[in-house]
Amino acid sequence: MLRNLGYLGTEGPALVFPVDSLIDFDLDGLVEQFSRVRAPLTLLSMWVPAGEAAGRYGLVLTGPDRRVRGFVEKPSLEAILDAYPPPDGVRGEDTRVPVNAGFYWMDGPAAVRFDRDPALRERRCHRLDFGLDFLPWLIEQGESVYEFPANQVGDLGNLTSYLDTMVRVLSGGFPSLDRFLPDPWHAARRVFLGSGTEVPAEASAWENTLVGEQCRIGPGVMITNSSIGDECIIEAGAIIESSSLEDGTFVGEGARVERSSVGVMAEIHSRVARPTRLRGAGIGDEVVIEEGAVLDGTVVHPRLLLPPGYHDGPVELSTSEDVLRRFVRGAQGA
Predict the structure, then answer these.
(1) Do 225 and 209 form a contact (C-beta atoms < 8 A)?
(2) Fewer Cβ neighbours under 10 Å: the N or C end of the chain?
(3) Which residues lie below 8 Å from residue 167, measured CB to CB, with a gap of 6+?
């Protein structure tokens, strides 16, 4: 569901770039701050617990006025707490600190001025990483850099983060995106259905789920924390958990799909007597998986065929030869 979403603010897009993140922030507030301080650059920050930031994110050193004094790339917990001592009664790792969310608002004339700077042009001949080089250079030059807090940031850069962000959107974590969802079929459980889709009685137990238009859902199907595209077929007794199924996907009876992403018009064949299981899998467009397959962390490139009973773990299958070689090896091992 998030494949084509960028940031959407209160009045529309703020800046449109091909990004691997989803961000929710107060666009009007950002404009007001920019108009007041006229900073050449404003970065969006996320305030996260120090224990989460340690060793993972770039720390922003700022004060009550939001002007940035410097940056520390992936600091230790000790370094974070030196910069932001915890208030009384708060454990150090729970102290919320600002980290760079990777989104920026730059003043147009300032951008032209930076582009013409001889020293910066010289740096560009070697390396000019935006976060590692350009932002510290701005601080060194005495330029005004400010931070502005974002409400939510979701990472779309890998399968796990993509699915986590999808679930946060479906559960209401990005309120500005709710207006792009259909009217809820079950508001309390946040179940959204497209037109022409009929669901079984079990759907009253679904939650945080979006099902597209003209889908056919069999009896006994359970779907939670998942996005189902248009014109999908999910047969009786299948279970879909924290997964994304794109348009035209087929899921056979008794199949179980957990924390997986399934591409356009993929086919997951399954029978109750020989069910197929996907867990943490990334399935490309038009892949066909025959009944009885078990995939755990497996990435399958588009338009491949996996034979009946195929079992595999965390591996990437990019060609038919990969599939055949691993299938034969697995059969010999059995």
Answers:
(1) yes
(2) C
(3) 208, 225, 242
Q: Does a structural domain hold residue 297? A: yes
Tell me how far the alpha carbon of residue 112 is from its chain's centroid: 33
Domain presence at residue 278: yes
Among the residue ranges 62-76, 124-138, 248-262, 319-333, the one predicted with the least confidence is 319-333
User: What is the spatial distance between Cα 68 and Cα 245, in angstroms, rounded to a whole number?
Assistant: 42
> How far apart (Å, rounded) are the C-alpha atoms in residues 325 and 17?
40
- CA torsion sign for 326, 331, 333, 334 is positive
Report how far Cα 11 is from the mean position of its chain's Cα atoms. 23
Q: CA 189 to CA 205: how far, in whole Å?
A: 8
Question: What length does the chain have?
Answer: 334
Establish if 288 belongs to a structural domain: yes
Residue 259 within a domain:
yes
pLDDT tens digit sequence for 130-169:
888 999 999 999 999 999 999 888 888 889 989 999 999 9
Cβ-proximal residues to 231 (8 Å cutoff; 6+ apart), any chain: 212, 213, 214, 215, 247, 248
**Conformation bin of residue 254: beta by default, left when phi > 0, alpha when psi is -120 to 50:** left
Beta strands 21-24; 152-155: pairing state: antiparallel
Number of domains in the chain: 2
Q: What is the pTM of this model?
A: 0.80
Q: Can you give the residue range of the structural domain that contains 112?
A: 26-150
Tell me which H or E stretch contains 291.
Answer: none
The CATH number of the domain where 300 resides is what? 2.160.10.10
Q: Verify that 117 and 198 share a domain, yes or no.
A: no
Judge if 190 and 327 occupy the same domain: yes
Q: Are residues 204 and 309 in the same domain?
A: yes
Please state the φ and ψ torsions of residue 116, each to the nearest 5 degrees. Answer: -90, -5
